[in-house]
Design goal:
Layout: H1 3-6, E1 7-10, H2 14-21, E2 24-29, H3 35-46, E3 50-58, E4 62-65, E5 68-71, E6 75-82, H4 89-92
Antiparallel strand pairs: 1-2, 2-6, 3-6, 4-5
């Protein structure tokens, strides 16, 4: 799998801000990506050393609009811990 396809976007939330202080970054990743793919993609795209990768799958929540009902799309989230002293500049500036 190509590195650009593994990482979809960086997650910018209050929890992600607190985790950045501990040198952890959160990304939305492709649902079929495993931890090895995520680690390799982050290391190649951002030129950093990854120590740990944790993943979590989120199911889509049921939503309704009038009589129509359906589900929001689910996603997979990865929390990546970097070697101390390193950071991802693109996310720090947000």
């Amino acid at each position: 799998m190509r590195h650009e396809k593994v990482i979809r976007k960086a997650l910018i939330t209050e929890k992600a801000d607190r985790l950045r202080e501990m040198n952890c970054y959160q990304f939305e990743v492709a649902p079929n990506a495993n931890k090895h793919d995520i680690k390799e993609a982050v290391e190649k795209l951002f030129n950093v050393t990854v120590i740990d990768v944790k993943t979590a799958n989120f199911r889509g929540k049921p939503k309704r609009l009038g009589l129509s009902s359906g589900y929001k799309t689910g996603y997979k989230k990865a929390t990546v811990t970097l070697k101390s002293g390193q950071k991802i500049e693109l996310i720090e500036g947000v």
